[in-house]
Design goal:
With 237 residues, the chain is of the alpha/beta class. Helix content is 49%, strand content 13%. It has a single domain, classed as Rossmann fold, CATH 3.40.50.300. The protein is built from eight helices and five strands, in the order βαβαααβαβααβα. Helix 1 packs across helix 8. The N and C termini lie far apart (36 Å).
Length: 237
């Protein structure tokens, strides 16, 4: 991360229960179960806070005539930024990546607004500014160095977006940990190297000092849910 950027002032934890972990750790399942249980006591909503590149790529690919080609091109370019950090992205790729981060920031603002209205939010994923890369919910352009003025300007703006989001820690962050064999057995369509990298990095993230509950994602879903609910009730009391 660039040392030029002045960190944002940290805010008090917001009324959010964030769930993070490698793909295949059970985030979506836990999020849905938590909303079902918590909504009987508090106004509760679920929100996906990933950058949605996969979903946006699918939408682009569905466009007539050029959609499929453009969708594959943009997804490949975005992945290459992570796989080849020594090569700075081009202007179009940088813009696409930056817009994906803007979309995440837009959803984050919606989340803050809902919490201010008294809602309890359960989020699948949560942005952080410690480690670069969409794989870890961090700024993607910061994964590469160099580039022209346009690329450097977008990189700086993207870093500020993530520092701003990270300045609002969740009330509780539930981190589901799994080994790579379990993750790959649940998500065989994912790259094993990407899963391995997430398993290595995500357990070391602090999410700006948030209260973190580490759970074993290989445990029965009922046990994970009970432990999560106990920790949430303690945090809300």
């Amino acid at each position: 991360m660039s040392q030029e950027i002045t960190p944002f002032t940290n805010h008090a934890p917001v009324r959010v229960i964030a769930i993070t972990g490698c793909d295949g750790s059970g985030k979506s399942t836990l999020a849905a179960s938590l909303v079902s249980h918590l909504s009987t006591q508090w106004p509760t909503q679920q929100l996906y806070l990933g950058q949605s590149s996969g979903r946006i790529g699918e939408w682009i690919s569905s466009l007539p005539i050029i959609g499929a080609c453009v969708g594959r091109y943009l997804v490949a370019k975005s992945d290459r930024v992570h796989d080849r950090p020594s090569a700075p992205p081009g202007n179009v790729t940088s813009l696409v990546i930056y817009l994906l981060s803007c979309w995440r920031a837009y959803k984050f603002r919606k989340m803050l607004k809902k919490t201010q209205q008294g809602q309890l939010l359960v989020t699948d994923r949560y942005p952080q500014a410690e480690v670069a890369g969409f794989r870890f919910d961090g700024p993607q352009l910061a994964k590469a160095t160099g580039g022209n003025f346009w690329v450097r300007a977008l990189r700086k703006r993207e870093q500020k977006l993530y520092q701003w989001m990270a300045s609002y820690p969740p009330l509780l962050l539930i981190r589901l940990n799994v080994d790579e064999q379990t993750a790959y057995s649940r998500k065989p369509d994912h790259k094993l190297e990407a899963l391995r990298e997430k398993i290595k990095v995500i357990p070391n993230l602090t999410f700006n000092g948030a209260k973190i509950l580490d759970l074993d994602g290989r445990e029965p879903a009922s046990k994970i849910l009970d432990e999560s609910l106990d920790a949430i009730r303690t945090s809300l009391s």
